[in-house]
Amino acid sequence: MSLHALPFNIIKKETDILNTPTLLVIGGIHGNEPGSYFAAALLSRYYHITQGNLWIVPDLNRPSIQQDNRGINGDMNRKFSDIDPQDADVETVQEIQKIITEQQVALILNLHDGHGFYRKKHLNTIFNPNAWGQTCVIDQGTLDTEHPYGNLNEIASKVSGELNNDLIEGHHFFDVRNTNTRFDDEAMKHSLTYFAVTHNKPAFAIETSKNLPTLHHKVFYHLHAIECYMKLMGIKYERTFELNMDAIEQLLKNHDYLTINNNIYFDLQNLKNSLSFIPLQSERNEFKFAHPLGSVQKNKTQYDLFIGNQKISTLIPSYHQKELCSMPITILADGKTQKLSFATDFFVTADFKIINNDLNTRVNVIGFTKKGVKDEANILVGLSDLDSKYSIDTAHKSYRVEFYQKNRFCGMVLVHFK
Question: First CA to last CA across the chain, in angstroms?
């Protein structure tokens, strides 16, 4: 595998790579199929593997995910048999091909959301043989050579049966769709799963329906299917939630946090649509998201923050040179002293004070003004002292506290009023 940064995330949860199988789960090959990548994200965040190994790629086609587009450079899932060296997707395709063909990978799941509900007989435009939704898709009945998981049809049938024992609505039932790729489907010969199969790797596509009413419906079925495959492979796990609709709906709202340049911190929950005068560097800003689907897109004068296909906020920068200032920061929060590093946060009920006796360092509590005061250190600040239009959140409870030396930016912390 390349030593340079991959164009997608890969999260490895391993217990014994020599003696137990590895399942590779891939989400986001199509950017307009959010069930696939949000399911993979929850799998990476809330599952602990206790036996066996799990590799997760939640955001294979990250630029298309940001745009909520099937493929901004064309259909990535039609580039696996042959790809033009000039194609914008060439690095992504070649890197995931290397991962698929690694010796320890024993089975591959490619997650999708497909239109309609697959039925062997034509009922209407939603329920018919051309639909892809609610299927376990295989390219052929069995692998060409012997493999512990080579009986693709038998495995997909077993998983479909298990899924059908726990449906939210009866018409959501799953079936096996065998594309019989080699003989019947020229387009599918260029797909990720067929690439895997031709390299003697068992591969399945899980397709939930785009006609399901919510994102959490899709994620529920994806996670349930993945658990069926883990069980089949002897991969044991613990998860931190009950696999039900309410729990998944809540987890999907957790966008976690972002740090920038190791000196800026944003809680991404309930962030305002736009934040101005963010002290960034004029180039080479490093954005680190806690969420595996977190990404940034720079547009001329602003930075758009995404969790999957959901734009969370826009940062409008104020450019400053970075300064390495002394830490830790000393604060008095509700009368108690705390020490913090930059790019962190703290909570108060009543008020806080930044304790600073360094004459070279200036403190700026964003939203606080006091006539004649330029350095806002050593001043007690309560929520009523702050102008709510400068809060970072829609509840007007979270504010930036920034530190400068001359016009060079040291870092910031966030204060949250309970």
Answer: 46
